[in-house]
Amino acid sequence: MTASPTLFTRIIAREIPSDIVYEDENYIAIRDIAPKAPVHLLVIPKNVSARLDEITDAEEMGRLWLTAVKVARQHAADYRLLINSGEKGGQVVFHTHIHILAGWENGPDSDT
Fold it and tell me: pTM for the complete prediction?
């Protein structure tokens, strides 16, 4: 049985338009459509896992984090990386992804 396509697999396949800020053979990074920070990007592996703890290969995990850092540094000097894992952990789209949050003038706990 094949899993249903996620929102992110449909974006990767270009079935749904998105503001792509980075792409290579393994990852895509897009702007979040409901940003929680002045800069809110999502780094999405093209190899689908529903949640972070399904990634068991250390090299794969390292590549994901290194890609997120690379993309973050292209958009901000200071940033926050965030992963929600599982419904009770705040995950909404069940396709592993890293949120990059940045761009606050006075830090993430300020209003700007």
Answer: 0.91
